[in-house]
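Chapter summary example.
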Amino acid sequence: MAIRITTLVENSVSRANMLGEWGLSILVEAEDCVILADAGATGAAALNAQTLDVSLSSVDAVVFSHGHFDHTGGLPHLLPLIHKPVDVIGHPRIWERKYAHNPGQKICSYNVGTDYEYIGIPYAREQAEKWGARFVLTAEPVWLSETAVTSGEVPMCTDYETIDPKLMLLENGEYVPDPLIDDQSIFIKTGKGMVAVLGCAHRGIINHLVRGQELTGLERVHAVVGGTHLMPASPERIEKTMRELRRFEVQVVAASHCTGLRAACALEREFGDSFVFNNSGTCFSL
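The structure predicted for these 286 residues follows.
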């Protein structure tokens, strides 16, 4: 079974006339379903889809990996290209009031001294529903087809993967650490092993892959596509992550977005030709 991956938007670009932004949106075309994994931050994903002449009318479902603006904000621009009401699958907690704690950083000229930046979904649920989104909110895995499934909540099972401490929630007037319970990914069963499509993997890339193994029943991980949130990771964590990817016999690592250049370079050195610098406009088949 062939799977076609088209990265509609990512931090950087792979060709002329494409837009990059801090965000991620990936079109996943499998034989039995078409999934839009995340929506980017703005209208860049929609514009790039038109530039690439990629039709979104066959999209069966949109999956939100978590409730941050850079993975959800572009939905209003993408829905008109889907041309029909569509299920948007996410965790019930995607609508929480999410912030980034940046002490001492000037967020904007009219907000001097503010250490907390709002990074949640930038529109109301009711607005999105008027545009054609049918939200399916559950903490459990959702089988999108006979071969594709969302992770649902991802348990923290490794001892070295931690959640970025600058990510916060505003609850009852106080900022508290965000456990990113809503963080999820997509797993697809193939004859070569599991294909994992990640948003940010805030709860740890290896934790996500272990979850995928449990749900699909496949031990071998053929490909890992998307964000890995290794940007803030220590060299030790990056090394342990690469060791586990080798143990899973990963054949393709297509890193994006929050992976960070340091980790991406380490992955490229480790995996060589099996590494894909997966940015806006990148298209490949698995």
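To summarize the output: The chain has one domain: 4-285.
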